[in-house]
Amino acid sequence: AVPEGLADRIVLNARFGMRSRRLGLSLAAAVAAIAVGVPSYLRLHDNRLELARDQAILQHVVEGTDELADNRGVAPAVLRASVAKLGVEVRDPPGYRIRHLANCVIAGIESRHFVIEGPDGIVSYVILPGAHGGADERVLERSGMRALFARHGDVTVAVLGAESMDRGELEKMMRKVLA
Fold first, then answer.
1. 162, containing H or E segment
2. Whose CB has fewer CB within 10 Å in the chain, the N or C terminal residue?
């Protein structure tokens, strides 16, 4: 004997069951595409934003020849207090002298720019709050200057020196000065 209603269930399932399964698979595929696509887009957007900020820092230092020429001297304690407000600690390596310190607006954000002089020559540092992403470290060059950019918490830290300085020397300068 055939159970009562079996025929109706078979007809209804044949008529509507596959559609709901296809709809379910389509919805699952759409959700998966969004789950993968949106984070990828956001990472790409963050990387572009960081690159634009890096380029703004490099442009600021390249065009700020008066800041590189400034040689009035700054006490290490003044530098430490100034950058501590941005959540960054600096060391006072022996043999180095702080030539310049300023609050500069770069990419519309108040940052700290300081210049030190020592056995490795004159090196600029820029600390820009509001890092959003990007690679851990990246190097850019412009107008005879090479810059190493690194994310340090929620700030971007840039070390900028002569184009003759390689990445290893810039990394060494970053480790010497940043705690």
1. strand 155-162
2. N
Q: Look up residue 13 and give its two tokens.
A: 């399932």
pTM for this model (two decimals): 0.69
Alpha carbon distance 135, 178 (integer Å): 19
Residues 97 and 119: their CA atoms lie apart, in Å, by 10
Four-CA torsion 168, 170, 174, 175, nearest 10 degrees: 20
For 9-43, the pLDDT digits (tens) are: 776 666 666 555 565 666 666 666 555 554 544 44
Are 152 and 88 in contact, with CB atoms under 8 Å apart? yes
SS3 content of the chain, % helix, strand, coil (to 5): 45, 30, 25
pLDDT tens figures, 38-65: 454 444 445 677 778 888 888 888 888 7
